[in-house]
Amino acid sequence: MTSRTRAADAGGDGRPLEKDALVPGADAKSFDAFYAREYRSLVALAHALTGSRSHAEDIAQEAMLAAYRRWDGVALLDAPAGWVRRVCANISTSFVRRRVVEARAAVRLRNRRTEVTELEDDDAEFWSVVRRLPRRQLQCVALRYVCGYTVAEIANVLGCADGTVKAHLARARSTLAQRLGEPIDEEAAP
Amino acid sequence: MSIDIRASRAAHGAHESAGPVDPAARLTDLRREAADRRRAGAVLAAAIVAVVIAGSAWYATAHRLASDQPVEPARPPVDTTAVRTTEDFLGALRDARTASGEQLDPAVDRVFSYLADDALVTESFGSPEELRWSLAWERATAWREMVDACVQTGSDAAGTVIECPFTFHGIRSEEMGLGPFRDNNWRFRVRDEKITDAQWNFNIDTGFSSQMWEPFERWVSTTYPDDAAVMYNDASHTHSRSTTEASALWERRTREYAAQEIASREDYRARADAICTSAHARLNAELAAAGMALQPIPGRTDLDLVPGREQDWPAYEESARGILAETVVELRAVDPPNVVRTDYLNAYSALVRGTQNEPIQPGTESWANYIDGPAHDLGLNHCTFNIRRSG
Fold this sequence. Notes:
heterodimer, A: 190 residues, mainly alpha, 67% helix, B: 391 residues, 12 helices, 14% strand
C-alpha cells in the first residue's frame, strides 16, 4: 500500500521509470500523442458525469491506463478515442469502480497541491440534474454535449443501436426541460 | 434559453474546468503506475480500497439524491401511505428476484407499477429489460438483499422521503461465510402513492468491494481472461454484461471461485492447526525437560504449573513466549486465502501481542480472549498456551 500511495504522488518518489513500460509492439509516440490529445476531454466528460473535478482526473487517468495496457489493440481500432471514452463513461457511472477511484483521488490530493477548477453555478446545477437521469440517458447526454458526438458515434461508443440512442436522448431532453424549466428546441433534436 | 443551448453552455463549462490539467505530468504518473502494477501483479484498487477501509469516512452519496434541497426531519403525522408504497415496491422486487419463466415478466411489471412515469431511478431500473438483466445477474451470483423496516425521514413539497436500510450478500459471499455487508439503504421520494425517486445507496467501507468484487475480478481475469471479456461489458471490468452467455458464465465462475476459496480456507485452517499442535507438543516437551511439575487445565489441552510451584512461572512463560514467537513466523510464511485473510491477520496480531510482555492497553482485546473466542474456528486454539496472566 505504501509504494502504491507513493506512486500516485505527483511529486514522485525518486525511482527511475522503467524503459520498457509500454506493452511489447506498442508505439510509444502514438500513445503519447493520443494521451495529449484526449486527456483533457476525458476529464471534462468525467467531471460532467460525476460532479467532482478532483475525481474526474483520476477517472480519466484510469481510463487512459486501460488504453495504455491494451494499446497494441486499441491503436488499431477505427476510433480509439471512442473506446477510451466508453471506458471513462462506464467508470464514472459504475457504483463500485467509481468509489474505488475516488478513494485514490483522496490519497493523491493529500500528497500534492493542485488547483481544482469547479463549475459555474448554472453549469453545476445542470449537470447535477443530468446525473440523476438513468445511467444510459446520463451517458448519452454527456457524450452528445461534452464530446459533441453524433447519434451514430454515441451508438458506436456505447455498443447499442442508433434508435436506442435517439430514444435515450429524447427522454433525457424531456426530463431535463421539465426539471430545469427550459423549453425544448425541436429543431435541435439529434 | 432552450435546453440544448443550456446543455452546450454546461458542456463548455466542463471543458473549461479541465483547462488547468497538465497532460504531460499525468502521463508520467500513468507510466509509473503501469510499471508499479505490473511489478506488484495487482489490478486496480486493492491498496486503494485498503486506504478507504483504514481511515476514510462513509462516502456521501448526496449527488445521487433526488433533490439538492435539504430535507426536513421527519415530523408527525407519518405518511403511512408513502411508507407502504415503498414497502410494497421492495416486496415486488423481492418477488421478482425469485420469479422465473412465465412469472418473471409480470413480476417485473409489478415492480415498475410503483414508479411514476418520470421517476428518477438508480441503476438497473431504467427499463423493465434493464431490470430483468440485473435480476439475471443477481440470480447467477447468489445476490440476497435483506431490507429492514422503512422509515419516513422527511417531507417537503416534492414528496415524502422514506429510507429503508438493508444488508446484502453478493458474489456468493454467503456460501463463503463472508458478509452480510451492512450500512446501505434505499432512499425513496413518494408523491401521490407513486415513487418519483429511488436511489440504491451502497457503503463501500463495509467490505463488499475488498472482500468480494475485487478479488473475484482479479481471479477470473487471470484464470479465465476470455470468459472475463464476455462477463464484463468494458475493458476496465466495471460492469457486468447483459447477455445470456454472460449470465451463465457469472454463475459458473462464481460457483467455481466460491468452491475454491472454501477449499483453500479449509486447507489453510488444517495447516494452522497442524502448526499450532506441533508447537503445543514442543512446549510440553520443553517444560517437562526443564523438570517443571505440570497439571492439566480443565477444558484445555495445554498445561499449567501445579499449585505451590509458582517460582517456576517466569521460566514457564519464557518458554511459552519463545515457542509462540517461532510459531507465528511459521504461520505467516504462507498468506491466508482472500476469504479469511482479515480474520487471520487479526489473529496473528493477537498472537504477536501474546509474545510480548506488555500490559493490555485500554480498548485492546486480550489476545488470549481473541484466540479463544472469534478466532477459535481458525485452527489456532492450540496456539493459545497458558500465558494469559501477563496479557
